[in-house]
């Protein structure tokens, strides 16, 4: 199905709306599951629903004309990343509307290290991922695939062209780095 999916991506890029519809039908359940995972990590009281998050991501993806889609994994990874951006934008808007700001998600520094604790500011998480990307783009992509994309170790290894053992090691390093970055004051 990946070959067919890649064909749909290419056809969509050329303006074929039937291919776009097939692609959306094929990937929608997976994108909705990713959205639900991301929203589960939001602090209670958030206002976005999974369907709205997927739809907003789809609208943003539709506006990306210069993307050369490689395959399903590339599409899903980018969709997960766009969903993260939607959540960050949403949190920033809500934060700007509140006097003391501070929209928080349950993805925590300690959770990244394998423990459980309270939430971190979604903008801080976004900044930490951006910093990790500048330092080590491969580990940042791994975090996006594993956490935001919901991929397994094996799926991540396939997407990155790496071994599962390497992905496990790099996942541990990335989690520790994020733990330290999110634990720093200010």
Automatic annotation (TrEMBL):
This is RNA polymerase subunit sigma-70. Gene3D superfamilies: 1.10.1740.10, Winged helix-like DNA-binding domain superfamily/Winged helix DNA-binding domain. GO terms for biological process: DNA-templated transcription initiation. The keyword Transcription applies. Pfam families: Sigma70_ECF. One of its GO terms (molecular function) is sigma factor activity. SUPFAM superfamilies: Sigma2 domain of RNA polymerase sigma factors, Sigma3 and sigma4 domains of RNA polymerase sigma factors. Residues 3-183 form the RNA polymerase sigma-70 ECF-like HTH domain. Keywords: Sigma factor, Transcription, Transcription regulation. It comes from the Bacteria. PANTHER family: RNA POLYMERASE ECF-TYPE SIGMA FACTO (PTHR43133), SIMILAR TO RNA POLYMERASE SIGMA-E FACTOR (PTHR43133:SF39). Belongs to the sigma-70 factor family. ECF subfamily.
């Amino acid at each position: 199905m990946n070959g067919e999916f890649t064909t749909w991506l290419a056809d969509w890029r050329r303006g074929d709306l039937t291919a776009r519809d097939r692609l959306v039908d094929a990937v929608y359940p997976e994108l909705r599951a990713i959205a639900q995972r991301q929203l589960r990590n939001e602090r209670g009281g958030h206002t976005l629903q999974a369907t709205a998050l997927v739809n907003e991501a789809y609208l943003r993806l539709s506006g990306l004309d210069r993307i050369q889609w490689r395959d399903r994994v590339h599409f899903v990874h980018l969709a997960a990343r766009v969903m993260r951006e939607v959540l960050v934008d949403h949190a920033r808007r809500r934060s700007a509307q509140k006097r003391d700001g501070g929209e928080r998600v349950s993805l925590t520094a300690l959770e990244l290290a394998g423990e459980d604790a309270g939430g971190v500011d979604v903008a801080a998480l976004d900044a930490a991922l951006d910093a990790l990307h500048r330092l080590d783009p491969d580990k940042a992509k791994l975090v996006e695939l594993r956490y935001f994309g919901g991929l397994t170790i094996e799926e991540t290894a396939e997407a990155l062209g790496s071994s599962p053992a390497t992905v496990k090691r790099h996942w541990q390093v990335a989690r520790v780095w994020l733990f330290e970055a999110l634990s720093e004051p200010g």
